[in-house]
Amino acid sequence: MKLAIAGDSAGEGLAKVLADHLKDRFDVYEVSRTSAGADPFYANLSDRVASGVIDGTYDKAILVCGTGIGVCISANKVPGIRAALTHDTYSAERAALSNNAQIITMGARVIGTELAKSIADAFLAQTFDENGRSAGNVKAMDDLDAKYSPLKNAEGDCRAGARSMSLRPYRDDQRDDCSANPDPAAISGLGIREASTR
Fold first, then answer.
1. Is the pTM of this model over 0.85?
2. Mind spelling out the 3-state secondary structure of the chain?
3. Which of 33, 51, 82, 84 is at 20 to 30 A from 135, Cα to Cα?
4. pLDDT tens digits for 120-173?
């Protein structure tokens, strides 16, 4: 399993502890920083790691900030991601078994290192059953995600969606018609004044 672990300025220390704890059992990538340095905000960190999960660079990830809340909210803004805030082993286990979460998050100012290790172990020890009783709930979550993600109608026009209105800049190779040219009327209809499309 390819596992990304990352933390912002408040969480990097715990992220490194977790990476060291798990490196002998998993293919661990401690990616708190890029070659350019630390991300300016935890939202950027979460976007970078969560996008890596979506594109297959990583299978799962653990994100850490001061409370775990900011990175969790941010990661869940990436279409297709199911991230869960976990500060106990039962929630970590259920994040995998009931929610098919690809990412768990923790707060370095909330829990200690030994509990954090146990939480990571509990999450990574479980595998979601795609034919189990939670499969319907996960499909419903994915359907809800798709409902608000960028869509193209039959003519190829864009309708408003989370990714097309993202404030993060897109690399040229990430652009498509939706991300480059969001429908102004649709965006206005959602009460969003501006969309950054570089």
1. no
2. CEEEEEECCCCHHHHHHHHHHHCCCCEEEECCEECCEECCCHHHHHHHHHHHHHCCCCCEEEEEECCCHHHHHHHCCCCCCCEEECCCHHHHHHHHHCCCCCEEEEECCCCCHHHHHHHHHHHHCCCCCCCCCCHHHHHHHHHHHHHHCCEECCCCCEECCCCCCCCCCCCHHHCCHHHHCCCHHHHHHCCCCCCCCC
3. 51
4. 999 999 999 888 888 888 898 899 888 888 753 333 334 333 333 333 433 444
Amino acid at 75: A
> Exposure string (b/e) for 129-156, b if CB count within 10 Å is 16 or more?
eeeeeeeeebeeeeeebeeebbeeeeee
Rg (CA), the chain: 17
- Exactly one of 65, 72, 158, 178 is catalytic; which is it? 65
- Cβ–Cβ under 8 Å, residues 59 and 1: yes
* 65 belongs to the catalytic site: yes
